[in-house]
What we know:
Blueprint: E1 4-15, E2 18-29, E3 33-37, H1 44-52, E4 59-64, E5 67-68, H2 74-79, E6 82-85, H3 97-104, H4 111-124, H5 126-130, H6 141-152, E7 159-163, H7 171-186, E8 191-195, H8 198-204, E9 207-212, E10 215-221, H9 222-227, H10 229-236
Parallel strand pairs: 3-8, 3-9, 6-7, 7-8
Antiparallel strand pairs: 1-2, 1-4, 4-5, 9-10
Amino acid sequence: xxxxxxxxxDLHAHYGQIHALRGINLEVRAGQIVTLLGANGAGKxxxxxxxxxxxxxxxxxxxxxxxSIFGVAAHEIVKKGLIQVPEGRKIFKGMTIQExxxxxxxxxxxxxxxxxxxxxxxxxxxVLGERRHRxxxxxxxxxxxxxxxxxxxxxxxxxxxxxxxxxxLAPFLVKNIMKVIKRLNEEGITILLVEQNxxxxxxxxxxxxxxxxGEIVMHDDGDVLKKDERIINAYLGE
Length: 238
């Protein structure tokens, strides 16, 4: 059996007349952290939305665990084990931390498994455990990002899509979030990471793709991209 978890071939997407994705090709293998880098408006989040079923592509193929998910409804894709942590957190304010996590486990039928997963989230993010009965709307940006990641861990995930997890966070919080992403990967979770913070992303990624105006313009091992002059000049500011 192939170890390719996600395979995208010649993916196209439009917003009205705007041709947002122009033939994206990428793959994610089991156990990897793969990062998708690019400037604002390059097509990173559009790619994520197509994968998770939030936007219907206009051409190409999307295969998850060897099965086509092109045009499949978002909630059905979640049931297959492909989970997205969206840009901007999208937590449910007015509900407690615990209620947010319980909502994230909607595909789980086993209460014991739900409890086990929740305790794992609280072990990863102790601050969430301490405040589990607090309204999630009262959390800081960093805590909300922890909750959004925690919510994704409440189901049987085969692939987690992380869309701009460092956005709007202080540098020390970004480091903490990246450490958690690395730890989750070491626990066996395969990750596709969209990041504007290229330096942080390439420090933890096994492989990287660079997208510009809806096209992949470069891809290689994370360590190779980190040393590439074009990447340094365009994204790393060194």
